[in-house]
Amino acid sequence: MTAALRTVAPTGRASWPRILLSGEAGAGLAWTAADFSRDSRLGGMYWLSVAGEDAHALGAVDGARYDILDHDGTWSDLYEQVCAAWDVAHAAVEAGGLPVALTVDSMSGIRAMLAELADTRARRRTAGALAARGLDPAPAYSSEVEVLVGADLWTLVGGRHRQLMGKILTWPGPVVMTAREQVGADGRWSLRAQDGLEHDVTAWVRCTRDDLPEILRLDVPRRGRLSPAARAELRREYSLRRLVWDWCGCTSETRAPQRPMLDADQVLPGEQPLTPVAAPPVRTARPVRRAPVAALPTPPAVESGRRVANLLDRFLALGTRSEINALWDSLLDLTDDERDTDVSGLITPDIRAGLGIPDGPCTLHALATEAARHVHRTGQPLVVAGAAETGAA
Fold first, then answer.
1. Does 221 share its domain with 348?
2. Do the Cβ atoms of 354 and 382 come closer than 8 Å?
3. What's the CA gap between 321 and 88, in Å, rounded?
4. 359 CB contacts (<8 Å, ≥6 apart)?
5. Where on the phi/psi map is residue 6: left (φ > 0), alpha (ψ -120 to 50), or beta?
6. What pLDDT digit, counting tens, does each position of 166-202 carry?
7. Same domain? 242 vs 338
8. Domain that holds residue 320
9. Out of the domains of life, which is the source (predicted)?
10. Cα separation of 291 and 191, whole Å?
11. What is the Cα–Cα distance from 168 to 170, expressed in whole angstroms?
12. What is the pTM of this model?
């Protein structure tokens, strides 16, 4: 049966802008955001610092009013703090308070963080495949060895970026994002941020040390498409306050953007979910022999090795008690040989210390047991897991 038609009429009212400030080092991007925080039409500002400028030092900007989101550097904690701030900002607006702004300094830091995630997971996967073939996995962690980052890892990176952007795009106040730009030998600027970020913003302003800010984009329907001459005129008049309150036409009554989160992961009529195919068992491991770095083979499509490496990643990233049962079921789906795979070459001394694993061989099953016990006992993720990944890479 066809669903009933649902429509709404456009209101014509502006929503809060998402502003991208990009430019070269020393262009004052973060300073501009800190200066904007003292605007009396704002109820305050939350500041997310990710490899940006010193957020504490910027508090010395005359009249600056912002609170720094305190996170431990892991994606889960960073995102949870943004979600908590999002809830508080919405509650303040619903209670009749002034809008609260958000600054993300910087989106280049977000991009670097996600790129490191892809590289680390790819190196773990390569190491797992080498170990499954009886080879020494250590060369996979060498910075001199290039590893293949699979499409599924880039999909994971894109998903985490969209997860953060979901909060940014529905923030109930103005959002200022900073990002680095570099000029290449051909004179072209290169934005150091996740691909497509420029399409998610209302305004894009390029700042340099020696010239006026350049208005690259300003999507305000009542102004229409700006000609180069119109953008040049705005360049002479630009300030962040003028952009938000005058050019975008925002007031304390401006609404939060209405953007439903898209989700196409449903089984529709005529579709059938794929049935997982059991992976072949791992062959009996041969004595480990070291492969020369220069002769490192291309990572083979060894499904069994991937399954072991994937479960290792997931147990090291285990964060809450509610995740344990489902993850343990995934472990039981492996073959006996896979559960007994020696993963000692894929874990660092920090992980051993954090989980109380003694030196020597360590099977996937043993590591999973200690990780599950740790989370069940403490209710907290393994604190050293993120640091261990960085060190391993």
1. no
2. yes
3. 26
4. 352
5. beta
6. 999 999 999 999 999 988 888 899 999 999 899 999 9
7. no
8. 301-393
9. Bacteria
10. 39
11. 5
12. 0.68
Residue finishing a domain among 247, 265, 292:
247
In eight-state DSSP terms, residue 246 is I
Task: Please name the residue that has the structure tokens 């008690």.
Answer: 321
154: amino acid identity, one letter: W
Residue 190 tokens read as: 């290169």
Fill in the amino acid letter for 10.
P
Domain count, the chain: 2
Distance of alpha carbon 214 from alpha carbon 120, whole angstroms: 37
Q: 31 with 58: CB under 8 angstroms?
A: yes
- All residues at 6 or more sequence positions from 259 whose CB lies less than 8 Å from its CB, including other chains: 166, 169, 170
**Segment 193-226, tens digit of pLDDT:** 999 899 999 999 999 998 899 999 888 876 667 7
- Asked if 140 and 147 touch (Cβ cutoff 8 Å), the reply is yes
CATH number at residue 83: 3.40.50.300
Angle (nearest 5°) at CA 202 between 80 and 86:
20
DSSP states along 34-93:
HHHTT-TTSSEEEEEESS-S-TTGGGGSTT---EE----SSHHHHHHHHHHHHHHHHHHH
Q: Which of 72, 338, 103 is nearest to 240 (CA)?
A: 103
Tens of pLDDT along 142-160?
A: 888 888 898 999 999 999 9
Residue pair 107/177 in contact by the 8 Å Cβ criterion: yes
